[in-house]
Amino acid sequence: MIMVSACLVGINCKYNGENNHCPPICTFLASHPHFLVCPETMGRLPIPRLPAEIKGGDGNDVLDGRARVINSQGDDVTDEYVHGAYSCWELARLNQVSLAIFKSHSPSCGCDEVYDGSFSRRLTPGDGVTAALLRRNGVRLITEKDFQQYGYNNK
Fold it and tell me: pLDDT per residue over 138-149, tens digit each?
């Protein structure tokens, strides 16, 4: 079973109310069992919402209480991101998810690099909150960029 960021298949759940539609992923998913998630909305954040970034580390640091998720107005939305992450993990566990295709750089879904918390579009190594929790529990993670470059079978 594959878990997919809902924004990648055209669902308007992005922070700004838009999506990150990725046609190659949609084509692939047509013949593979999958389901869609948006960790931020599962964490009870609205659409649209203010952009947020992780300050003080990455998703692992958030899960361990060493970093926070802060929106562009300075409000702490860590609890919502953590709630969304655990909601996604529960679905992944129940559905025996082996792969997640997630949106790159997101404070929830980013894999291997996320924005650095300065709202200057600078990237730093690390995972988003949901990605970190899934990786801790053995789920393989790729982003839409990985998928477009390598495809699923070659990564």
Answer: 999 999 998 877
Q: How far apart are the first and last CA of the chain?
A: 17
**Bridge partner list, 124:** 114
Structure tokens at 42: 């599962």
Q: What is the pTM of this model?
A: 0.95
Q: How far apart are CA 85 and CA 79, in angstroms?
A: 10
**Bridging pattern class, strands 99-102 and 140-143:** parallel
Maximum Cα–Cα distance across the chain: 42
- Is residue 10 classed exposed, middle or buried when 0-12, 13-18 and 19+ CB atoms within 10 A define those classes? middle
Q: Given the structure tokens 């659409």, which residue do they identify?
A: 47
Alpha carbon distance 37, 74 (integer Å): 26
Q: In the chain, where are the structural domains located?
A: 2-154
pLDDT digits (tens, 9 = 90+) for 89-136: 999 999 999 999 999 999 999 999 999 999 999 999 999 999 999 999
Q: Where are the alpha helices (DSSP H) in 4-66?
A: 23-29, 39-42, 59-63
What letter represents residue 23's amino acid?
Answer: P
